[in-house]
Write a structure and sequence with these properties.
CATH architecture of the largest domain in chain A: Orthogonal Bundle
Shape of chain C: globular
Chains: A mainly alpha (about 325), B mainly alpha (about 290), C alpha/beta (about 325)
Radius of gyration of chain C: 20 Å
Oligomer: heterotrimer
Order of helices and strands of chain A: HHHHHHHHHHHHH
Number of helices of chain A: 13
Structural class of chain C: alpha/beta
CATH class of the largest domain in chain C: Alpha Beta
CATH superfamily of the largest domain in chain A: MetI-like
CATH topology of the largest domain in chain C: Rossmann fold
């Protein structure tokens, strides 16, 4: 178990390293001088040169890379081109909004996918199964932005049930916070739910064919208990693996959804930074997200131990 | 298993794909066939866009801005008076081309690396596999946005980014197919007879890897269409006045409450194309999947 | 009915037909099966794989997959309870409580995610309404009864810590948790080593001796049956072809198929099932005008292939062979 987690941790640290290296190299290989971007649109040659020295961009690449990575270890993500603000500060400012969105979406995804996935697996081949599978295929194909816009069009603009856009911090007004999160969470949650449903269905119907499920039935436990106790825990193993990918996908989706619903989160910050060519910010957000993905994956690996006693040994 | 029997099987799989049972099985799946028809029709219509559309995609008539659907403009006009249908037809070319670019790029990245990993084994395999795992854990769209953020907006950059992100999937399929075939006795036989590695690769491994690769290519096309849509929607993909489905959709959002038609039309097109590529991939997988079981 | 049977029937299977969905429609995998098991009796049901013996056992407790299978007709009664007509709720009250079941694969029949003790105790909790503590204690004493050493500690371990023989013992403990009237053992020793097989059979025989439990023992191995069964039924291609006391079947079989089976247990090559009979069991959807065994039978005549052979009874024995009076078939002894 320990070696397993260490191995996975190694892979994830490698991810982090790769993102840093690729990002760093791209900045310097691709045309366009970061100093020009940093100095601003109207800067003259002297200002650009001064900015270059000031940001340390005139030094050898290896030195810059070393400084950047050692900074990362101290959780120093560098400073923004835009006003010289520490990148990490900007990110942590935006974190609560993104976190709210991700958690709410996850909730929506699980609330939809677990009943639908288990239900279709248990009643495999029935008309409900076919409808469920069709819905899931549709859901996988629907782009986040389209789902979001249709929800806004119908539920906000036509029916006026929800506000189209906006965000209120949780501690300012919990009710308004939840109310404003409904549409974004539905948007992001349904697409993730579709993918999860497919996996849950496949996994549960595989497990239901297994010998020990038959044993459980032969003990007279009743179908609900057989499914909830004996099938679910083992069916959860492959699903949990997919779940990790889906959380990654959810984080990616925040970029789109925060844009549509004007949620001041990390995704929105990323897109703004791309437009303003704020390279340290872009790279910093990339690495920050990689760290979160890393953390989620470690948690998921640990959950295997609980799900499957064999891993614990 | 003797050499001839194994070779027969290798050939059998190839036939499955080209004319044998696989095509028949594929034909028996109405959804997959419908998907294929949709992809072919859309591709043809978009290629023929200059012949089919009476309006240019990049110039509008300022007097005709933001019109609703009419006989002259079936899907209305956009905020600078351009015909939405024409922009969608031209935009489809960009979208499809971008998806092909991204998928092609991930094939070029993933397949040779996968075959090398399978052939070389040992630390080469370990390194390549770890890198592939590493890339796959990262959210695809975010990685693409970050890469664009560093290299600057533009469709080609965007699609290279998407290609990098999906390369590992093709890497895995190619590696798995390579490994499966490598363990067969007839490869050892071919080696002893003195076949060059390239010949072994072309004659034995690629035909066997082709069907699973085709499945993955189809699924990657779907994700690439989605990614193009997302990036262009954000304004990070195609740059004006170029058109693509994502760009048409993104540009129409501000006027959505009064003029929802362009948003819905572009969204439906993207969704259908993604769905079609997904169903196509599933259909191919089912056609070869049953072959294996029997 | 069987006149030699003393006491009341625990299990009464009457004209049971079970059908599978095949490409050509519904085909019977078990046709017109009738048998009874008396109190404290061990009944051995024998046949090759595909003969329908496991399907019969599964249908008793309604464990066949809902898709692709259906009951074509007949009755299954446990005491006074009609099992085929029972609702799933009623069935759940029978399963694990009045009927215990053990399966062929001890490696896969236990849930890897729960401890052995928990898997036994949950049955006790479900049927006896016992508390967690009581059920656990019962699980430990059951494990100890079936020969698991240091049962208290082993109850807390997971199936993957157990060997095949120990798992099958645990399965038996689970099946016996609520002192069932009937134990259905579906190929309980097939997946085990020969030495372990004997131990498990001894255990089943012991447990039966110390209670009034009946056993339906399903196996392809006549040697297994000869050790523990009181009576034997032989199935072929979905039909019962012979039924009699174990001694009668072994000494003087009345059906050529039984005779073939018996000659095969003498063959040393135990990896080859039924070396004595050429060919293999026909698939479910194949139709025969006459005797279903005729084309593999060394004694078949034209008369055998004309019309279906009905069950014949004589002197407490049942068989399904037209020529039984003229043939003198070889037994095992």
């Amino acid at each position: 178990m320990l070696t397993f987690v260490l191995r996975r941790l190694g892979i994830l640290l490698l991810t982090l390293g790769l993102v840093t290296v690729i990002g760093f190299l791209l900045i310097h290989i691709t045309p366009g001088d970061p100093a020009v971007a940093a100095a601003g649109p109207d800067a003259d040659q002297a200002t650009i040169a001064a900015t270059r020295v000031e940001l340390g961009l005139d030094r050898p690449l290896v030195v810059q890379f070393w400084e950047y990575t050692t900074g990362l270890v101290r959780l120093d993500f560098g400073t923004s081109f835009d006003g010289g603000r520490p990148v990490l500060d900007a990110i942590t400012d935006r974190l609560p909004a993104t976190l709210s969105l991700v958690i709410a979406s996850l909730l929506v995804a699980l609330l939809i996918s677990i009943p639908l996935g288990v239900g279709t697996a248990v009643h495999r081949g029935s008309i409900w199964d076919r409808i469920g599978v069709l819905l899931a295929s549709l859901g996988v194909a629907l782009p986040d932005f389209f789902v979001g816009l249709v929800l806004v069009l119908v539920l906000a603009l036509q029916l006026g049930i929800f506000d189209a856009t906006g965000y209120v911090p949780l501690f300012d007004d919990p009710i308004q916070w939840a109310y404003l999160l409904v549409l974004p969470a539905l948007t992001l949650g349904t697409t993730v739910a579709a993918e999860l449903t497919r996996h849950i269905r496949a996994s549960v119907s595989d497990v239901l064919e297994l010998d020990y499920v038959r044993t459980a039935r032969s003990k007279g436990l009743g179908s609900t208990r057989v499914i909830l106790k004996h099938a679910s825990r083992n069916a959860a193993m492959p699903v949990v693996t997919v779940f990790g990918n889906q959380i990654a996908r959810l984080l990616g989706g925040t970029v789109i959804v925060e844009q549509i619903f004007s949620i001041p989160g990390i995704g929105q910050l990323l897109v703004q930074s791309v437009f303003t060519r704020d390279i340290p910010m872009v790279l910093g957000i990339g690495i920050f997200i990689a760290m979160i993905v890393l953390l989620v994956n470690v948690l998921i690996d640990l959950s295997y131990g609980w799900l499957n006693p064999r891993v614990r040994a | 298993m003797n050499v001839t029997a194994s070779r027969e099987r290798g050939r059998g799989l190839r036939q499955t794909l080209t004319r044998g049972g696989g095509v028949d099985r594929f034909r028996r799946q109405p959804l997959a066939v419908a998907a294929l028809v949709f992809v072919v029709v859309i591709t043809t219509v978009c290629i023929l866009a200059p012949l089919l559309t009476p309006y240019p995609f990049d110039r509008g008539v300022l007097a005709d801005t933001l019109q609703g659907p009419s006989a002259r403009h079936p899907l209305g006009t956009d905020d600078v008076g351009r015909d939405v249908l024409s922009r969608l037809l031209y935009g489809g070319r960009t979208t499809l081309l971008a998806a092909v670019q991204a998928t092609g790029f991930s094939v070029i990245l993933g397949v040779p690396a996968g075959l090398i990993a399978a052939f070389a084994g040992g630390w080469v395999d370990a390194c390549l596999s770890r890198v592939a795992d590493a890339i796959m854990t990262f959210p695809a769209l975010l990685l693409a946005v970050v890469i664009i953020g560093i290299t600057g907006p533009g469709l080609t950059n965007a699609m290279i980014a998407i290609g990098v992100v999906y390369g590992p999937r093709l890497f895995r399929v190619a590696r798995a197919a390579g490994l499966a075939v490598l363990n067969e006795t007839y490869i050892a036989a071919a080696k002893t007879v003195g076949c060059s590695p390239l010949r072994i690769l072309m004659r034995h491994i690629l035909p066997n890897a082709l069907s699973p690769l085709l499945v993955q290519v189809s699924l990657t096309m779907a994700t690439a269409v989605l990614a193009e849509g997302s990036l262009s929607f954000l304004g990070l993909g195609v740059q004006p006045p170029q058109s693509s489905w994502g760009a048409v959709l993104g540009r129409s959002v501000p006027q959505m409450s009064q003029h929802p038609v362009p948003v819905i039309a572009a969204g439906v097109l993207i969704s259908l194309l993604v769905l079609s590529f997904n169903l196509l991939g599933d259909g191919i997988r089912d056609s070869i999947g049953r072959e294996r079981k029997s | 009915m069987n006149t030699d049977l003393v006491g009341q029937h625990v299990l009464d299977i009457n004209h049971l037909t079970v059908e599978f969905r095949t490409v050509s429609g519904w085909s019977p995998a078990v046709r017109d099966l009738s048998l009874t098991i008396g109190r404290n009796e061990v009944f051995g049901l024998v046949g090759e794989s595909g003969s329908g013996k496991s399907v019969s056992a599964m249908s008793i407790l309604g464990l066949l997959p809902r898709r692709g299978t259906r009951i074509g007709g007949g009755h299954v009664r446990l005491g006074k309870t009609d099992l085929l007509g029972a609702t799933s709720k009623q069935l759940d009250q029978v399963r694990g409580s009045r009927v215990g079941m053990i399966f062929q694969e001890p490696m896969t029949s236990l849930n890897p995610a729960y401890t052995i003790g928990e898997q036994i105790a949950e049955s006790v909790r479900r049927h006896r309404g016992a508390t967690r503590r009581q059920a656990w204690d019962r699980a430990v004493s059951l494990l100890s009864r079936v020969g698991i050493p240091t049962a208290a500690r082993n109850a807390e371990r997971y199936p993957h810590h157990f060997s095949g023989g120990m798992r099958q013992r645990a399965m038996i403990a689970m099946a016996l948790a609520c002192e069932p009237e009937l134990l259905i053992a579906d190929e309980p020793t097939t997946a085990l080593d020969v030495t372990v097989q004997a131990l498990i059979l001894d255990l089943i025989a012991e447990l039966r001796a110390e209670s009034d439990m009946s056993v339906l023992l399903i196996t392809h191995d006549l040697a297994v049956v000869s050790e523990v069964a009181d009576r034997v039924g032989v199935m072929y291609a979905g039909e019962l072809v012979e039924q009699a006391s174990t001694a009668d079947v072994f000494n003087a079989p009345q059906h050529p198929y039984t005779s073939g089976l018996l000659s095969s247990i003498l063959a040393l090559d135990s990896t080859r099932e039924f070396a004595g009979i050429p060919g293999s069991v026909p698939s479910v959807d194949r139709e025969f005008p006459g005797c279903r065994f005729a084309d593999r039978c060394a004694f078949a005549t034209d008369a055998c292939t004309i019309s279906p052979v009905a069950l014949r009874r004589s002197a407490g024995r049942i068989h399904r062979c037209l020529r039984s009076d003229e043939l003198v078939l070889e037994g095992a002894r």
